[in-house]
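Q: Could you fold this chain for me?
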Amino acid sequence: MSICISHKEDTDGICSATLIKAAFDVSKVILVDYANLMTKLEKVVESDSKIDQLFICDLGLSKKNELRFVELLDKIASAGTEVTYVDHHDVSREIMQAIKKAGVTLIHTVEECTSVQIYSKYRKKLAEHALHFLRQWARSPTTWKLGQLHPA
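A: Sure. Below is the predicted structure, expressed as structure tokens.
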């Protein structure tokens, strides 16, 4: 099983989840906000299901949760899950090092939004139909309602 956990409250998070789903055919997409990110990660740790891949997208960390986030990612990666964290929010150098030390693939820059980073990294994995959809979507973002994958 593969899972993508992404931010639900803006187009960057939704587009990020869409790109990951298209590139990796993930089994389950979970859209969350900042308040319930840790709860969802704890459920992944407690899950009896075998999780092969976990992608976490567009979910910035705070001083309150960053150490717990690293701890949970370490547990998940130690169980044999391939974990990838893609984000554009500020993250301290120490936390970035801790994430990498946990065996997590970190894709991070504050220069580009998360969905652009995902597209740049994985564009060769995206089917042409997904690219066409995303080009159309990007041309008219004001016509889209959050959480829907069809025009308003």
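A (continued): The helical segments are 11-24, 37-46, 66-78, 93-101, 114-122, 128-139.
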